[in-house]
Request: fold
Amino acid sequence: MTRRMLAAVLAFAMWVPAHADVTIKATGTGKGLGMSGTIPSTTYVKGQKMRVESVLGKKTTTTIFDVENQKMYVLDDKKKETDVWDMAAFSQELSKAVSAEGMQTSIKPNGQTKTVAGQTAEGYDLEIVVPATVGGAEGMQITVLLSGVAWIVKGAPGAADYAAFYQGAADKGWIFSDPRVAKGSPGQAKAMAAMYAEFAKLGGVPYESQTDIKLQGEGMVGGLMSRLSGLSMNTTTESVETGSLADDLFQPPADYTLNPQQ
Reply:
C-alpha cells in the first residue's frame, strides 16, 4: 500500500510552454506504516496517459493511468495479469467518502532556494486539509492533513505535458494510488491528488519534496489513529528527458489476462 502511495507522490506535474513526451527518473524514501528503504521510479507521460514503474527490493510495481479512456491498469509481471479499474465509476464511489467542497489547499513560496541535481530550485510550502469518512457513509469522520515543502525548478523540460495530464485527471476526479488502497484511505488519496493539482499551477518541476501525512479524528479511536497514522515521504528527481514514447508503453501487454475490478 505505502509503496503505491509513494510511487504516486514521485509523479509531480507542472507547466511550461513546451510539448513532448516525458520521462522522469526519481528516488523516494518513506517512514511510517511499516515503510522503509529506497524506491527508485520511472514515470512516462504521453498526452492523457501516464505509466509509473517503481521498485522496492526485488519487486517492481507498474501502473498505467489512462485518463483519456478512464481506465487504470495495475500490472502483475509474475502472473502476467492486469487488474483493470473503471475510474469513472470509482471516482463517483470515492466522492461519497470525500467531498471536494470541504477541502482546503495552499501552496506559497517561502523565499528559499537550493541547488538540486545541478539546478536552482525555489522553495514552496504546501498544506492540504481533506475532511473524509472512513467505514462507509455512516463511518468515522476524520481529517487528513498533508504538509510539506517542494523545491521547484522553473522552466523544466516536459512540464507542460505533465500539467495537461494532471489537469485532465483532476477534471475527472482521479486519484493516483491503487483503488484498493484508496478505499481504505480515501482522504489520503484525495489529498495527494489535490497536491498534484496545486503543483500543476506552478511554472516548473519539483526536483525535491518532503511530505508528511497525518490523520485526525474524534474520541479515543481518533486519537489512536492520529498517533499511528503518520507517514513521511521524500522524493528527489534525478533526470527529466523529452522524446517520443511508443504507444504500447501505455497499454497492458497483449499476452496479459485482464481482470476487471470494482
Residues 22 and 242 are 5 Å apart (CA to CA). The radius of gyration is 18 Å.
